[in-house]
Design goal:
The structure holds 2 protein chains of 2 kinds. Chain A is mostly helical. Chain A contains 21 helices and no strands. Chain A has helices at about 1-20, 35-60, 60-65, 75-85, 90-100, 105-130, 135-140, 145-180, 185-230, 235-245, 265-275, 280-285, 295-325, 350-395, 405-430, 435-460, 465-485, 485-490, 505-520, 525-535, 535-545. The longest helix of chain A is centred in the last third of the chain and has 50 residues, at about 350-395. Chain B is about 85% helix and about 0% strand. Chain B has helices at about 1-10, 15-45, 50, 65-105. Chain B is elongated and about 70 Å long. The two termini of chain B are about 15 Å apart. The chains are: A mainly alpha, B mainly alpha. At the A-B interface, helix 6, helix 10, helix 11, helix 13 and helix 21 of A face helix 1, helix 2, helix 3 and helix 4 of B.
Chain lengths: ~550, ~110
């Protein structure tokens, strides 16, 4: 394992050496080309391209392409899952949230985190024992392949596309700011690099890009925090005293604030984040990259450790930024402290890095942010492509008759198609308010993917009809609730008032999915339904023991 | 063929034991997480003032932050507990069970 981790360590060393170099002065113009960041990013790209080249030689079968042949260890997969889960939005958005809203950000983080233990206790082992390439393998295990897979592939693609758009638009804006590159160029760079990683290197390359990036992110974030925290003698008391004295919220800084003011929103958000995580196709797919249930469990153990640790780092970074960034005129437009932050709220983490570690650390963190987007986008594209090639093409259209070669070719085309779609949509949505898209992705994941998946593993009575009603009911209701909520109906479409009063769909859409699945399964008494129910017994033994599960191919 | 194997395993008392004990263990841990998590969210929603108070007179540590920090650590420790038992005791039992079923075949 150490040998496999060498690239990541080498990168950290290279970056570490770079810190020792003379710091060039790039202050002044706010969108000047950031050479530190570009050079460090180029190092990252060169290294990941090397890995992709190596991975391409090992990607021969469909198992290699979709799941790295099941040969990833629990520790590696844990890092990769943590990488998939900690997007640029996590690093930048949550630091910004801690900076402006204080304690509310920490509540969000717990909601993002608490899904992991549940996934471990109730899902990890069964996912690994039943699944092969996509989570639709599990939902359609004993149900009608064609119909259930089509439904699961559609809801996967809805999640993937919305998440992709959010990542692409975020990427373009961020890269414009951090690197001084044009928005459209940034979108093309991300789209094209992603297509190269995924089409050539499949899951092997995608996993290693993710692992390297996770190491960089953990290293960069922790280093920034340590440098910042020394200013307060590593004392939370000192930090909080100063932060509360300075922040406009004052003593309310560390109190639950307006973000979760009403109980319905709070609970709905909690549900959406917790069960949305358990329904994200690119996360679920990671469970099939390890050899057995043992490694799958270890993956979650490591992933949740890294994620939990990093959330705490980010929260403290945000608090440190209140004092360090918030009192430094160089980070405010026109040098007016308390005015508008240069580059907007999302730049707080970057400004903090610059304040405590100079241009080197800023450059490193910027490169990490770029790498993060690239890695998350690659994981999403692979999940989307596998829904198209494995579920829709190989199983539904060709009814299992496609050769592995054909299937891989289709998934490469699908990746290129998704990459081009991501580029086009990224450019189209540049000026739009896309805050709702991540919420929508989580909402659909929680309301469509999760209910059908968990029922198919736990409830004997689920039939094809119930799964279809539950799945489609979940997707459609989640999409409609978001469409009619303030964030789309008012903020995007410009209507005067929202038709649905809450911004979080999960609390309402999840019960619809479960109730539909229950009612339409219960009333399904045809001979096929009886056969499906009877098939649960064998599935149950396999889910519990892993006997007959697809193993590691090498 | 594998259906026969599954049938053999299903009737093995060890399978019943595995399913019962691991199921109970997993659901207990899940219940702990869910109750603490949603209980905490209820506090956030209905009694935010309480969470804003400091843990002791003169301390800067707010109750809410402290509880949550403990939850991060505690939830992670629960994953450690689960993985240790599942990867040890329960996986040994599973291996036994599969061996039994394969022996029967001979």
């Amino acid at each position: 394992m150490m040998r496999r981790l060498t690239p990541a360590i080498a990168l950290i060393l290279i970056a570490g050496l770079a810190f020792a170099g003379p710091a060039m002065d790039a202050s002044g113009a706010k969108q000047a080309t950031n050479w530190h960041a570009i050079i460090m990013f180029l190092i990252f790209v060169t290294m990941t391209m090397g890995i992709t080249y190596w991975a391409a030689g090992r990607t021969k079968s469909t198992a290699d392409f979709y799941t790295a042949g099941g040969g990833i260890t629990g520790f590696q997969n844990g890092l990769a899952i943590a990488g998939d889960y900690m997007s640029a939005a996590t690093l930048l958005g949550l630091t910004a949230m801690a900076y402006t809203a204080g304690y509310d950000a920490y509540i969000y983080m717990l909601a993002f985190f608490a899904g992991w233990p549940i996934i471990l206790f109730l899902m990890a082992e069964r996912l690994r024992n039943l699944g092969r390439f996509t989570f639709s393998d599990i939902t359609s295990y004993r149900l009608d392949q064609g119909k259930v897979r089509t439904m699961a592939a559609i809801s996967s693609l809805v999640v993937v596309v919305f998440y992709l758009i959010a990542q692409m638009v975020g990427a373009g804006q961020l890269i414009k700011l951090l690197f001084g590159l044009d928005y459209n160029i940034a979108i093309f760079v991300v789209g094209i690099l992603m297509m190269v990683y995924v089409t050539l290197g499949g899951m092997v390359a995608t996993t290693w890009v993710q692992i390297i990036k996770a190491c960089m992110l953990l290293f960069g974030g922790t280093l920034t925090l340590i440098l910042a925290y020394t200013q307060f003698g590593f004392s939370l008391t000192t930090l909080l005293e100063k932060a509360e004295a300075l922040h406009k919220l004052g003593p309310r800084l560390m109190a639950p604030g307006s973000l979760l003011a009403d109980p319905v929103t709070a609970i709905s958000l909690g549900l959406g984040l917790m069960f949305g995580t358990a329904g994200l196709p690119h996360i679920l797919m990671r469970f099939f990259t390890v050899g057995n249930a043992k490694e799958a469990r270890k993956s979650v153990l490591y992933a949740s450790g890294f994620v939990g640790f990093f959330f705490n780092v980010i929260f403290l970074m945000g608090l440190c930024a209140i004092i360090i960034v918030g009192q430094d005129p160089q980070f405010f437009e026109g040098g007016v402290i308390g005015g508008k932050i240069i580059g907007g709220g999302n730049m707080v983490a970057m400004h903090l890095a610059k304040a405590v570690g100079g241009n080197m650390l800023l450059g490193f963190l910027a490169a990490v942010a770029f790498a993060t987007i690239l890695a998350v986008v690659s994981g999403l594209a692979l999940a989307g492509a596998s829904a198209i090639s494995h579920d829709i093409y190989a199983r539904v259209i060709r009814k299992g008759q496609a050769t592995e070669k054909e299937e891989i070719r289709i998934s490469r085309f699908a990746t290129i198609g998704l990459g081009m779609l991501a580029i086009v949509l990224g450019i189209l949505f540049e000026k739009m308010n896309i805050a709702f898209m991540v919420g929508l992705a989580f909402g659909v994941a929680a309301a469509a993917n999760f209910p059908v998946l968990i029922l198919s593993m736990y409830w004997k009575g689920l039939t094809t009809r119930g799964a279809l009603w539950g799945g489609y009911g979940g997707v459609i209701s989640a999409v409609l609730f978001v469409l009619f909520s303030k964030s789309v109906w008012v903020d995007v479409l410009g209507n005067p008032a929202a038709l649905f009063p809450y911004t979080q769909p999960a609390l309402f859409a999840m019960p619809i999915a479960f109730i539909f699945a229950y009612i339409f399964s219960k009333t399904d008494t045809g001979p096929r339904a009886k056969a499906e129910i009877a098939a649960f017994d064998d599935q149950y033994v396999r889910a519990q023991t892993g006997f007959g599960a697809s193993g590691a191919s090498h | 063929m594998s259906s026969v194997m599954y049938e053999r395993m299903r009737v093995n008392p060890k399978f019943q034991k595995l399913v019962r004990e691991r199921g109970r263990f997993a659901w207990t841990l899940s219940a702990i997480v869910l109750v603490l998590f949603y209980g905490f969210f209820m506090l956030v929603a209905f009694n935010p003032g309480l969470l804003a108070n400091k843990i002791a007179e003169g301390s800067m540590w707010p109750i809410g932050y402290t509880i949550e920090l403990c939850m991060f650590v505690f939830f992670w420790l629960l994953t450690v507990v689960y993985v240790r038992r599942a990867n040890g005791e329960f996986d040994d039992l599973t291996a036994d069970l599969i061996k039994d079923a394969q022996k029967e075949k001979l």
